[in-house]
Amino acid sequence: MAEKNEIKQAIEQICEEKNIKYDLVIETIEAALAAAYRKDFGEKNQNIKTEFDAETGNAKVYDVKTIVEDMDLEEQEKMWEEIRERKEGGEEIAEEDELKHFNPKTEIMISEAKEIKKGIKIGDELIQELEIPEAFGRMAAQTAKQVIIQRLREVERETIYTDFKDKEGQLVTGTVQRREGRLVMVDIGNAIGIIPMDEQVMNEKYNTGQRLRVLVLSVEMANKGPQIILSRSHPDVLKEIFSMEVPEIGAGTVEIKAIAREAGARSKVAVWTEDDNIDPVGSCVGQRGTRVQTIINELNGEKIDIIEWDE
Fold first, then answer.
1. Which residues form the S1 motif domain (predicted)?
2. Which terminus of the chain is more exposed, N or C, with fewer CB under 10 A?
3. Rounded to a whole number, what is the largest CA-CA distance in the chain?
4. Residues 234, 272: contact at Cβ < 8 Å?
């Protein structure tokens, strides 16, 4: 295949930059090449599979057919005609009386298959390598590159969606990129998240380049890719920061039972432990208030009252 070095380098670069699995890129390329071959040299709905060798840049093309029992096609056509007439006459045909059409594009009868490969049986796949036309070799690289770009965008979107869907309810660290009207756009690694107006804290400025922790509130797949909604005002922002800054909460020995939060102004956190040897409030406050002060600084001065949970 032409331009093999360029394609191989592009694959490696995409994998590194976009954090996409190498095997997934190869699968995408093989699907693109199969579609290109089927369109220009094969038949519609033909089951074409390809193997792409990233080391050499070469591709192999295969025709794949499922082995089915022998059929008398003329007799089958007569039976189909009879069934069609019965249906047109208003008769309901039982599922077991329906006939399965033989599809020569994706199926091959057992007797013919055995002439090609001995020992094969019904239900197996007969895979035959096809000769690659010279024209396919010339145009494959360009066709593949065009489809690869499109498909890789889809793969990247799916990868981002999966990664951040798993992080819903968790804190991530991001950098404020810009404002778009009332929205704050935050760079959270390999994606851009949005802090809507109602998830912002009123006294926070969100200056470009500012680093901050944000809660991944929701992740949905939209037409243009994953839409990642972030929050700074949700009570779980406070809960997650406590989990990070207070080891006893992170370990589960101290539990946050309730949070009442007026984001940017004041919050009240009720904590509890079943261990009589642990002071839950003291664990959260820290020696000389160091732990709670770190949390207050993270929330730009929001006052935090920590109380012991009372059922």
1. 169-233
2. C
3. 92
4. no
CATH number given to 235-308: 3.30.300.20
The Cα–Cα gap between 214 and 110 comes to 61
Amino acid found at 17: E
DSSP state letter for 102: P
Contact 189, 156 (CB under 8 A): no
Inter-residue contact 17 to 64 (CB < 8 Å) = no
pLDDT per position as a tens digit, 204-250? 999 999 999 999 999 999 888 899 999 999 999 999 999 999 999 99
* Cα–Cα dist 163/223, whole Å: 18
Output the pTM of the full model: 0.61
- Going from the C-alpha of 175 to that of each of 165, 184, 186, 189, 306, the distances in angstroms are 20, 10, 5, 9, 29
Domain boundaries, the chain: 4-68+105-162, 169-231, 235-308
Q: Is 92 exposed, middle or buried (0-12, 13-18, 19+ CB in 10 A)?
A: exposed
Q: Encode burial over 171-198: b for 16+ CB neighbours within 10 A, e otherwise.
A: bbebebbeeeeeebbbebeebbbebeee
In terms of DSSP H, where are the helices of 128-195? 134-165
If you ran DSSP here, which 8-state letter would residue 108 be given? E
Task: Tokens for 149, please give them.
Answer: 């770009």
DSSP secondary structure letter of residue 156: H
Q: What are the DSSP calls for 225-265, one per residue?
A: EEEEEEESSSHHHHHHHHHHH-HHHHHTSSEEEEEEEETTT
CATH architecture under which domain 4-68+105-162 falls: 2-Layer Sandwich (3.30)
